Amino acid sequence: MVNIERKKASLNNRLAAACLDIFILMMGFILLNNFFVIPIFNLTSDYNQVYDTYVQELMDSRMYKEDENNNVIFVLDNFTLDELTTYDEIITYNYNLEEYSTNGPSALEEFKNSKTDMMKEYFTYDQETDTYTPNEDNESEILTFYSNAFNDLSSFLLVNNETLANAYSKLNFYNQIERFISILIVSVVLYIVIPLILKNGQTIGKKVLKVYVVECDKVGLGLSTSKLLLREGTFVVVEVILSMFTYYIPLILSLIVLVATKNRVSLHDVVSRTMVIDTLEDIPEKEEIVDKRLIVNPPINVVENINIVEGKKEDSNPIDSGENE
After folding, report:
1. What angle do CA 149, 151, 157 make, to 5 degrees?
2. Under 8 Å CB-to-CB from 230, ≥6 apart: which residues?
3. How far apart are CA 151 and CA 111, in angstroms?
4. If we measure between CA atoms, which residue out of 249, 233, 100 comes closest to residue 162?
5. Do the beta carbons of residue 242 and residue 250 sit within 8 Å?
6. CA pair distance 59, 54, nearest whole angstrom
7. Is the pLDDT of residue 298 over 50?
8. Cα–Cα distance between 10 and 273 in angstroms, integer?
């Protein structure tokens, strides 16, 4: 008789394996996205044309400018108190454009009112010259004010400037497609292809932590290809891809299920009726095993002789335990 104990994987082992896999996933995503997907996508779409339109609109708004290396930079990137007048002129110029005559005046009035309040707090007023001088000690607070003012102006332009809004929406869509393609490829390789190669449902993280994926309804380490594809496919589609568009709610839900359930099963384990276990304990030495297939895929007629427990082992044979002596 061979006694085999399957012990559920500890929470620490599962989380450590998951963290390692996620780290590999993110590194793979960054490399694939930046060096392959983005360059190929840009060559096969009108991304560059749309981007040029977007940049030109930002340049026309004067919120962005070219530096000495012809790189487009935000005007506040090199913030100085000496340029406050220039910042005011940029904001005033945009709100006063004729095409924004409906909404511009009210937005400009709001900016002026908020600026007046800010100046009372962070500027020194000279009564003789009737001028305000910015306090150098409050440079960060003044920068924050103008950063918020330019953010408000950007939001205003995205609502009122149709060309800029269309280019911005298109660029966002293209970026989402690029990220989706990259994360899908890396996820399939990491969570489906590699487990199929390593067997026993092991990803790289599980391999390092020496944990296995097994079927709840079967004895031993056997994990069918269909179960593996169902488990990892659910994880990739629901907990990775869908999470990208739903504020990671499916992934968070899966972690809650993992922590809350007795057998430490996650959402994809529930769907596929699988569980993650630590290395099988108390496996006899090779010379004691008559049929090594017993460990991996035991014959039906010997299943009754295999005792699988979650905690302490029990001897199912009363003769061996000495009960019939």
Report:
1. 105
2. 271, 272
3. 12
4. 100
5. yes
6. 9
7. no
8. 18
- What pLDDT shows up at residue 6? 65
Instruction: Judge whether 274 and 201 are in contact, CB under 8 Å.
Output: yes
Structure tokens at 130: 């009737």
Count Cα atoms within 13 angstroms, Cβ side, for 132.
Answer: 14
Give residue-wise pLDDT tens across range 90-108: 999 999 999 999 999 999 9
Q: What are phi and psi of 174, to 5 degrees?
A: -60, -40
Q: How many residues does the chain have?
A: 325
- pLDDT tier for residue 285 given thresholds of 50, 70 and 90: very low
Query: Could you tell me the two tokens for 139?
Result: 């440079």
User: How far apart (Å, rounded) are the C-alpha atoms in residues 274 and 6?
Assistant: 13
**E strands of 85-193, at which residues?**
123-126, 131-134
Question: 176-203 pLDDT, tens per residue?
Answer: 999 999 999 999 999 999 999 988 889 9
Helix (H) or strand (E) holding 2: none
DSSP class per residue in 88-115? HHHHHHHHT-GGGTTTHHHHHHHHHHHH
**What's the number of CA atoms in the CB half-sphere (13 Å) around residue 178?**
23
* DSSP type of residue 125: E
Cβ-count burial 178-187 (b if 16+ within 10 Å, e if not): beebbbbbbb
Q: Nearest 10 degrees: CA dihedral of 218, 221, 226, 231?
A: 100
Distance CA 155, CA 61 (A): 13
DSSP one-letter code for 46: S
The model's pTM is: 0.73
